[in-house]
Amino acid sequence: MTIGYIRPMATMRELTFVEAGKVEFREARVPTLEGPGEALVRPLAVSRCDLDFVFTQGKAPVTGPFPLGHECIAEVLEVGDSVRSVVPGQRVIVPFQISCGTCDACTKGFTGSCRTVPKLSAYGLGPLGGGTAFGGAISDVLRVPYADAMLVCLPDGVSPIVAAALGDNAVDGFRTVAAALARNPGASVLVGGGGAPSVGLYAVAAARALGASNVVYVDPNDGRAAVAEKLGAKAVREKCTPALRLGRFPITVDATAREEGLRFLLGSTEPEGTCTSVGIYFADVALPLFEMYTRGVTFVTGRVHARREIPAALALAARGLLDLAPVATTIAAWDAAPEAWILPAPKLVLHRT
């Protein structure tokens, strides 16, 4: 099943990370269906992941070139004969991780650790995403190898620009508080922001949507703090350091990606509370393990299992309860990608006009 698009074997433009501070459109081969369970999709809106900006700053252990983009809303172009969940013309959320849906990891909900594909397989993350086999989302066509397992239909009325981050960062923020608030309804939440700027803000949005009684956001950046306030948090415009004292919270979120920030969040977690870290630490850091032990702190780290989390977050967004719009602070045209991609912003979204 197919609708008109770039003919197979043609080339297309694909945004490519070249080196720190330099990204550019390069020619790439248009993918084609390679099996009956696959789909081809055309990205319509792509948001920049927090890690993408780390790449552009040269702060991640990666080298180019590799294609960019992995948070996207796309239109289905073509599906294989065995695909049943989507049809050409539908708009879908594309999870950034590749998952088959049937291996032992996927059936347990660990869709970011699918055993059918190479470790870390993902779109647009180069050596941190299992290589370049699946391309990047800032392109004309993406191949989805497990369409029924991966793709999630976007409801009418939900903006692709707002929803693009549901492929990664928005659900990453969502999962930092969802399980903890389910165990402890109405609990207060402390979020330390900055290093993973949009994930921290999405955690604020999720906490408010899920009924947290109080949300405090700590970040010296006035622009991000203002977004947090718009989402309903109390913003503390200070740097997260162990010297800062705000009391203790049953749920804390480390999005600082700094060791002193992590120590602040751990120290601000109340006895038997939960601290989830979404900061990526490329070097080992010291943890106050004895203090955590004596207070019974649960520490959670690791990559989000995006496909598992999308339905719950999307349902809240479709009902207007999970407010994703304020986080998308910068909207740029598709053709402006090379220039826009390297500029700082809590959340950049590229869209086709």
Automatic annotation (TrEMBL):
GO terms for molecular function: metal ion binding. Keywords: Metal-binding, Zinc. The keyword Nucleotidyltransferase does not apply. Residues 199-318 form the Alcohol dehydrogenase-like C-terminal domain. InterPro entries: ADH-like_C, ADH-like_N, GroES-like_sf, NAD(P)-bd_dom_sf. Residues 35-149 form the Alcohol dehydrogenase-like N-terminal domain. Its cofactor is Zn(2+). SUPFAM superfamilies: GroES-like, NAD(P)-binding Rossmann-fold domains. The keyword Zinc applies. This is Alcohol dehydrogenase. The lineage of its organism: Bacteria, Pseudomonadati, Myxococcota, Polyangia, Polyangiales.
